[in-house]
Amino acid sequence: MPAPRLIMYHKHPTSARTRFLKLPYGGVCGFEALPEGAELTSGGESENLVSHPAPLLRAAETQLGLPSGALEAESGYRCRVGWNDGTADIYLARFTSIDPPFEEATTHGSTFIDLTQARNLPPVELALLRLAYERILG
Questions:
Q1: Which residues of 32-51 are buried (b: 16+ CB within 10 A; e: fewer)?
Q2: How confident is the model over 14-23, as pLDDT tens digits?
Q3: Domains in the chain, please, with CATH?
Q4: By the 8 A CB rule, do 8 and 111 touch?
Q5: DSSP-H helix ranges across the chain
Q6: Most CB within 10 Å of its CB: which of 37, 61, 121, 128?
Q7: pLDDT tens readout for residues 70-108
C-alpha cells in the first residue's frame, strides 16, 4: 500500500481564517503529488487494516523543521484516494500555533493559501480540500 498523505492547515483561533499548506510540488497532499488520474474512492472505512496518522505528523514536523506537537491530527477525517495501481489514505492535520509557521514554510519552499487560491489544484485535491473545509467548519 502506498504511503498515506497529510493535508496540513492552520485555523486562526480568533478570526477563524483557515489556510492550507501548499507544498513545493504545487499541491496540498504532503509531501509528493498524487499520481495522475487519482480520484476519491468510497469504502475504506470498513477495512481491517488502516494506517495511523501519528507517524505522518512526526515526519511532517521534522521535514518542516517544526517542534514536536506542532501538528495535531483532525479526528474523523480520513479519505481514500485511488489510481490505476494503488490507493492511499489521506489525513488532515492542524498547526497548533497561534499563527501559521510562515518562516518554516518558506524555508521549506511551501506557502499558506486560502481555499480560494486552490482553484488550480488537480480535481482530486480540490475534492479533498472541500471535505477538509467541511470538517474544519463543523
A1: eebeeebeeeeeeeeeeeee
A2: 999 999 999 9
A3: 5-137 (3.90.79)
A4: no
A5: 54-64, 102-108, 123-137
A6: 128
A7: 999 999 999 999 999 889 999 999 999 999 999 999 999
CB 73 within 8 A of CB 57: yes
How many Cβ atoms sit within 10 Å of the Cβ of residue 60? Answer: 19
Whether 72 and 97 have beta carbons less than 8 Å apart is answered as no
CA distances from 65 to 23, 96, 105, 107, 137 (A): 14, 14, 9, 9, 28
Pairing outcome for strands 71-83 and 5-11: unpaired
**Which DSSP symbol is given to 32?**
S
Strand partners, 100: none
Which 3 state secondary structure label does DSSP give 131? Answer: helix
Q: What is the pTM of this model?
A: 0.93
Pairing of strands 18-22, 71-83: unpaired
Q: How far apart are CA 72 and CA 137, in angstroms?
A: 16
Q: Which three cell numbers stand for residue 19?
A: 489556510
